[in-house]
Amino acid sequence: MVREHLADMVEQGLVTPTGLISHGRGEAFDYLMGEKTIAPALEAERAAAAFLLKAQRPMVCVNGNSVALDPKGLIGLAKAVPAKMEVNIFHRTEERMEQLIAYMESQGAEGILGRNPDSRIPNLTSDRALCTKEGIYDSDVIVVPIEDGDRAEALIAMGKIVISIDLNPLSRTSKVASVPISDEITRAVANITRFVEELRGNDAEIERIIGSYSSKATRRDTIQCICDALMSEFKED
Prior knowledge:
Structural class: alpha/beta
Number of domains: 1
CATH superfamily: Phosphopantoate/pantothenate synthetase
Number of strands: 7
CATH architecture: 3-Layer(aba) Sandwich
CATH class: Alpha Beta
Number of helices: 12
Shape: globular
Radius of gyration: 17 Å
Largest sheet: 5 strands, parallel
Helix content: 55-70%
Strand content: 5-15%
Distance between the termini: 34 Å
Strand order of the largest sheet: 2-1-5-6-7
């Protein structure tokens, strides 16, 4: 059903054909993790909620695939924090930007940014550099679901806390992210939103989570979970 939906979104112009390749790559890693939220991902999702609640200018950034896969979940997360939302895409045309923003608005988004970029992310040559000062440029903590590595690196270089949602723990995005979450987007967004509600107002616990969190440990434990799952196929009954 998800694949058929994405194919339909390609026909509508919201998702690009390369987005289908990206989704298929992610699906492969989801199979390796048992198509469930593994413990390292859950820990990262809790850390993501803590960073978002601690932020002064939190941002939820979306692209074509994330808009197609979980628009209502992303809108709900932004409202729960609360955080601003901005559309930012690699294959940018004014028509596609308008389609994506209009679609998000039809799903309940309000005040979504991206139509009128007035800033650029430094050290990026693609159209993903285009952004708004009010949104991405001035944000301090930013959620980037289904991200490409060059922009994640550029955002880190700007001094931002980058929370990635990328099923591949070996991707450049996961390697550079402040909080790399290897989980399917609808599960990840739902978990982060739940943790936002649980942690809200508990400043001591938020500080504890942020102080003890390790992105390197998250990736190491994620890869260990995959290895354990693969080797379990060969265990004797």
